[in-house]
Each structure stands twice: as structure tokens, then as C-alpha cells.
Amino acid sequence: MAKLSTPLRVVVLLTAIAVLMVLLLANAVGARSPEVAVAAATEHGTYLVVGGDTLWDIAAAHTTPGEDVRRVVYEIQRLNDLDGSVIQPGQVLQVPLPG
Predict the structure, then answer these.
(1) 44 burial class (0-12, 13-18, 19+ CB within 10 angstroms)?
(2) Based on C-alpha coordinates, what's the Rg of the chain?
């Protein structure tokens, strides 16, 4: 096996450190969930469920233009500890305010 010269060893070491730093930075950025960032910045209101309401309809009414209704459905489920999409008339839900 051939020995590496000292300048080449330095280049290899610095390259390895740079790659490691890029991977650590990518991991740190990826670790922050978008749902957490959105939830932290969102204000909440309440909504009284009436007969015929669906979770999708309520979420659509609280979705800003261009926003994905599915994200708002998820947020309502999270805010109200809902396991699914079943809601009942008379139920008061926490909902994100649009905008």
C-alpha cells in the first residue's frame, strides 16, 4: 500500500471534515418538522360542529388560498386529539385561524 504525502493527507482530512459538516447541517435542518414550525406560528380559534359538518369542510373553511387542506385537517386532529375524522354535532373544536 502506498503512503500518502503529508499535503495529500491534509486535503483528505479537510475533505472528510467538510463532508461531515454538510451531513450534520442537513440532519439538523431535516430534524425540524414543518408541522411543528407551522403549529408554533399558528393562532387558534374555536368552531362549534353542527349537523352535516365534516372535518374536511371545516378544514377547508380554515385554509388560506394555496394551502393544502390536508395539512389543516391534520392540524385540527392534532389540536383536538382526534384519532380519525369522526366529529359530532355540538362538539367544540380548536381550529387554526387562516392567514
Answers:
(1) middle
(2) 24
Question: Are 4 and 16 part of one and the same domain?
Answer: yes
Which pLDDT score, from 0 to 100, does residue 69 have? 94
Helix (H) or strand (E) holding 76: helix 69-79
Structural domain of residue 12, as residue ranges?
1-31
Phi-psi region of 89 (alpha: psi -120 to 50; beta: other; left: phi over 0): beta
Instruction: State the total domains in the chain.
Output: 2
d(Cα 72, Cα 92) in Å, to the nearest integer? Answer: 16
Please, are residues 55 and 85 in contact by the beta-carbon 8 Å criterion? yes
CATH number of the domain that 89 lies in? 3.10.350.10
Distance CA 32, CA 18 (A): 22
What are 51-96's pLDDT values in tens digits? Answer: 999 999 999 999 999 999 999 999 999 999 999 999 999 999 999 9
Q: Do 27 and 41 reside in the same domain of the chain?
A: no
